[in-house]
Every structure is written in C-alpha cells, then in structure tokens.
Design brief:
Elements (H helix, E strand, L loop, with lengths): L6 H7 L8 H6 L9 H16 L21 H10 L5 E6 L8 E7 L2 E7 L5 E5 L13 E3 L3 E2 L6 E2 L5 E3 L19 E6 L2 E9 L8 H9 L3 H6 L7 E10 L3 H9 L1 H8 L1 H4 L2 E10 L3 E8 L6 H6 L2 E7 L3 E6 L2 E11 L2 E10 L7 H13 L10 H14 L10
Antiparallel strand pairs: 1-10, 2-3, 2-5, 3-4, 6-7, 7-8, 9-10, 11-17, 12-13, 13-14, 14-15, 15-16, 16-17
C-alpha cells in the first residue's frame, strides 16, 4: 500500500516546498482589534509552543503524528487561518455560478466575508463583502444583482466595486469617493473552479491568468489533472453540505489515508475496487490517489466508477474525485477548532445530465456510502471522523504513528 501524507505534515512543509519556520507561522497572525494585548500575547505564546511540539524533519518511517493539540486548540486554528488559508488559493465556487453578467455568490472563510460577481462587461471580480461605511455585510447567498446596496444605510456599489452612492454625506470633510470603494480580493478561475487568494492585494482588479494559478495552486500536477477529465466540460449538478463535529484536518487526514481504511471501514466501496492497484503520487501541493475498478466491464458499477478512479487532494482543504462520468468535489471549511463544514458539489458528463433515474440512484448510493464513489464524507465517514475527534480530546492520546 502506498504511503500517503498527513495533512498536518503538509502544513509544516508546503508553502516554501520545504519546512515552515515556526516564527513565520506565528508572527503573521493579525492582532484581533477586540482583544486585550495581554490576552493576545498569551495566545501567541501558546500557539508558538504548539508549533514546536512537532518535528517535520523526522523521516516518515520513524515519525509520530502531530500532537492532538493541533486538532483541538483555538490558538492553533487561528495560526492555520492566517498562515495557511489566507495565504493560499482557495476554491470558493464554480464558474457555473457566474454564467451571466450580474451573477454573484457570497461566502466566508474564517474571518473573511467575500462576494464574487460578474460585471456587465463579463469580467469577474471579488471583494471583501463589507460596506466601507459602518461594516455591514452587503450581500448574502447567491443570485443576480445590478449593484450592491448596503441594507444598513443604503450605500451603493457597482459590480466593479466602485462606490456609486453614499447617503447623507453633505458637509462631510476629507471624503474622497474613490477611496471608499469595496476592498478587492485576487480572483481566478481554473477549469470549473473559482478561486480567491486573500493574502494578495488585488491591484489591477483583473482576473489572474489561469496558467499562473495552475502553477501556484497545483504545481506539477495541473497537466495530470487536466488530462484526467478535471475540466470545465462537465455539467454542474447539485450541492450537499454537512456540518461535522471534528477539526477540519481530521476530515482531510481521513481522505488522505483512503487506501488504508477503505477495506475496514467501507467494505461496500472496497468490493467495487481493485485495492491492490491503489497508488499514491505526491506533488508540490497535491496528493493523487488512483485505483482501478473491480467491476466487470458493462456492469452498473463500471458505469458509475469507470475503469479507473482518481482522487486528488489539493492543499490545504480541497478534494477532487473523478470516476466514470462523475466528478465531485469536497471543500472543507473550518468553523471552530472541533467543527467544520464539508461542501460536496457534483458534476456529470454532459451526455447524462438529463438521465434523472441514473442521477437519483447515483446520488443516493453516494450519500449512503455503501457504494461511496469518492470515499468522501458520507455517513460512515462522519462516524469515523467524529469518533477520531473525541479520541483526540481524550487525555489518553497525544500522538500516534504514521
């Protein structure tokens, strides 16, 4: 069985394709404006100690798993958000959500509220979803808007972020309308995905070139993913969301060790796969697992699984599962140290998008996990991940083995 990389080990290694320096990890955390300086300092000290508890230089054959505190301590989650999530490309949606001018969708990662839209000229923009007047959230959900109107005091912004109307400002001095547009975020698309980078200043207000994103986000795996059918030709189908009582890394670790736990925890899935063909390839920021189907050519399982399945984990929290005519993606969003949201989006080959019976049965099978196509978060994995989280909180456990 091929050895896979633990999510927390990747946290320590990936940004510079080497090892995080612990002082870099904790110095970049923004000081919360609502916290006292003494409390803030205590949190930094606590977080720094947690970083030093793990040594990523130990060969994997001898290594322990990261300490349980990395999965439970609030100060460590704050470090992850500011050093990892806010400093990397994050998938936040799909191009199907922005098909037409005036389409928009909104969301949140950590403390960052964002809104993404397509303007009347067809350009995609992304902004902090916060009014520059008194900090109200501007837009919620998704849909169509000709402009963004603040529900608090009526300040109005164009889809390019320009402040169009500021109410009751007569007599206000030193007020420059051009300085009070929405704060932009870097936005890009790759294949069917819309991505944001919250750590980069969006100077030119233009969508980032997809080749640049491919290199920064996927590295050497981008071509492999493209030729394996992870592209914009599939039809977007539907979304499922789960709130899970576990740290976000517990879910990711569960995904990354798929070839290990499948025969024990997912016997239904295992029966449809040739597990001796399971392989794992590691790239700069991506782990790709492959497995061939064990079904006879022409059976229902082959139609669903295809002759081969590919499972791609993209650091730090995004998974792509491509099998037969299907693709589904799993996005893991931290909500709290011991809670996360997992967003499943399903895509299907265009030739099958009108086959309702096939779609309904496949989604049902996927949710029940007895025939879980992507080894994702259905019911069996919810039980596993929440059980692991409870174990991590036990005083009997600190670290395990790889």
């Amino acid at each position: 069985m091929a050895m896979t990389m633990n999510t927390t080990a990747m946290i320590m290694k990936i940004p510079n394709h080497n090892t995080f320096k612990s002082h870099q990890l904790f110095n970049c955390v923004k000081k919360p404006s609502c916290s006292s300086s003494s409390c803030y300092s205590e949190n930094l000290v606590a977080a720094q100690k947690l970083v030093y508890e793990f040594n990523p230089q130990i060969p994997i054959e001898k290594a322990l798993t990261p300490p349980s505190s990395w999965y439970t301590d609030p100060s460590f989650l704050a470090l992850e958000l500011h050093r990892v999530f806010y400093r990397s490309w994050q998938v936040v949606g799909y191009t199907d959500q922005l098909k037409d001018p005036q389409d928009f969708f909104s969301g949140r990662i950590g403390e960052v509220e964002f809104v993404v839209c397509r303007d009347d000229n067809g350009k995609i923009h992304a902004f902090h979803n916060v009014c520059r007047h008194h900090a109200s959230i501007l837009a919620t959900g998704s849909g169509k808007k000709s402009w963004f109107v603040c529900p608090y005091h009526g300040w109005t912004y164009g889809l390019d972020g320009t402040l169009l109307k500021a109410t009751r400002i007569t007599g206000i001095k030193d007020f420059n309308v051009k300085e009070f547009g929405l704060v932009p975020l870097e936005v890009a698309t790759w294949g069917p995905f819309v991505l944001l980078n919250m750590g980069k200043e969006a100077v030119h207000q233009e969508e980032v070139d997809s080749n640049v994103v491919a290199n920064e986000w996927l590295g050497g795996s981008s071509e492999i993913l493209s030729i394996n059918g992870i592209d914009s030709s599939l039809s977007y189908l539907c979304r499922r969301e789960y709130t899970i009582e576990c740290n976000w890394k517990v879910f990711c670790d569960n995904y990354l060790d798929g070839g290990y736990h499948v025969p024990y925890a997912h016997k239904g899935l295992a029966s449809g796969l040739q597990l001796d063909s399971y392989s794992t390839s590691l790239y700069e920021k991506v782990s790709i697992q492959r497995c061939e189907s064990g079904s006879t050519e022409g059976t229902d399982d082959t139609h669903r699984l295809g002759s081969k399945a590919i499972y791609a984990f993209i650091y730090p929290n995004f998974m792509i599962n491509r099998y037969g005519p299907w693709m589904d993606t799993n996005l893991v969003i931290p909500l709290a140290p011991t809670r996360c949201k997992v967003v499943f989006d399903y895509f299907l080959d265009g030739s099958l998008k009108d086959d309702k019976a096939f779609i309904e049965q496949s989604l049902k099978d996927s949710e029940q996990v007895q025939k879980c196509l992507a080894d994702g978060m259905q019911m069996e994995d919810i039980i596993l991940c929440e059980g692991v989280q409870r174990g991590l909180e036990s005083p009997a456990y600190c670290s395990g083995r790889k």
